[in-house]
Write a structure and sequence with these properties.
The structure holds two protein chains of two kinds. Chain A has one domain. Chain A is built from nine helices and no strands. The longest helix of chain A is centred in the last third of the chain and has 31 residues. Chain A is globular, with a radius of gyration of 18 Å. The relative contact order of chain A is 0.20. In chain B, helix 1 runs parallel beside helix 8, helix 3 runs antiparallel to helix 4 and helix 4 crosses helix 5. Chain B contains 13 helices and two strands. A two-stranded antiparallel ribbon of chain B has the order 1-2. Classes of the chains: A mainly alpha, B mainly alpha. At the A-B interface, helix 2, helix 3, helix 5, helix 6 and helix 7 of A face helix 2, helix 4, helix 9 and helix 10 of B.
Chain lengths: 197, 305
Amino acid sequence: MNIFLTLLSAALYVMVFQNLIFNGGYSLSEAIRMSAKPRQLFPMAIFITVFSTVLSTICVFIDTIPYVKNLNEVFHALIYVGVLLGLYILTMIIVIIYGKISPKTIRRIGIAAFNTLVLAMPLINFRSAFTPIEAIGAGLGAGLAYVIAVLLINLGLKRLDTNKSIPKCFKGTPAIFIYTALLSLAFTGISGTSIFI
Amino acid sequence: MSDKTKTLKTIRNSAIIKNPLLFEAIGLCSVVALARSLKLALFLACVTMVQMVVCEVLSSLLLKNVKRYWRVALYVIFSVIVVFPIMYLTIRFFPNIAVNFGIFLPLMAVNSLIALHCERVAVKNDVKKSFIDAVSASLSYGVVAIILGFLRELLANGTIWNIELNLPIRLSVITTPFGGLLIIGFLAATLKAFVNVKYPEASPEKSFDLSEIRRSHRGSIQELMKEDFNPYGEGEDETFSVREYKKKIKKSKINLPKEANDEIESVETPLFVEEKERTYLDDFSEILSDLENQNTSENDGGDKQ
């Protein structure tokens, strides 16, 4: 029960109270791009969740090695990038051996593995001194945060696309930026950050 | 068209009209999180420029024969070669900047801007073209970051380069991602208005395809996995290297007449395609297709009634 609650609180933390995409700005480009393609939401979310959770978990265990613990932040970050590259290469080798996966899936894996949301997870875990259970929760929460972000931006895109009262120069990307800014403000409110001090 | 004009057109396209940040919404993470002051923005712009030039030149030199799914990982390795020494030196010599950058400096190793430009331009062109693209795209990215940093520092702290200006109002909210995105939104609208006035013939309508936004995100995973996936419009198949792809095209055009083959050969990669001038025939065919559509919809309506 205790493990489940730890997992849940870590997931909720990165998903709602400190939504990594709206409060931190991680993977904003990918979230905005993917919100225009709702059919890609779940395939991408699955890959992002897998990569963020596995990377987060492996790195938290690596951090417990005494020699690694004493290294400075640059080398920690370097190790995390190395692990991410290793994970990607391993996935690709499996895909090549399996041989039945389509090029579209291979492309999805590339975008899901190398984005700021996934690489941010071990760095956040290191700074927040998360335990392995919390790291797994945070990894799962990152994937769910991505789902929430894409769904919310997609809802706005549908309305912005048909709204005729938007001035010409604000149509398209500018309106999407401003709408995403307002979502970000809402999540800043949920996180409890003081914004007028 | 002379080489100089072509180069200028390329710079205009990748730096102004299709600004990577304001038009294409690429590389938002670093800018939104880091360009909180003029000093940080300038640092970010410099790092991005060095990183982009190195990555694009190396990609253009070394990766033409590498399959795409390995190239993606190699872009990250090239970025690491640039970013991590900079990170090490920053922590050592500019600890204040390093503290402000936090975890975002290592995250620049997976900046989508780098991967996208390497993929779109560097692996398909020679070193010179890749270098020009890297400089123009990173300059335009850097200029936007600097403007954003300047405005955010001014509005949030009432300072410019840490010089106090004694402004009556301070909006600390501007340093959050909300403030960053809001200012980027207004900058994007300004750029769009400028492009509409200055280059009306080249003014693009939308940066990315919105035709699918109304489709449902639900469905079986197998079904969803079969959907086309090309969010950045990068083009060809994952499983080929650029050279293999060119060979494939050559094979497919063997039976064509010489003129047609020459024409195919002269077609350049997306960034360097010359814009065709619109003629009265284009307008005429558009009006005709509109009328046809109107007639079809009226007939359909009549049938239903």
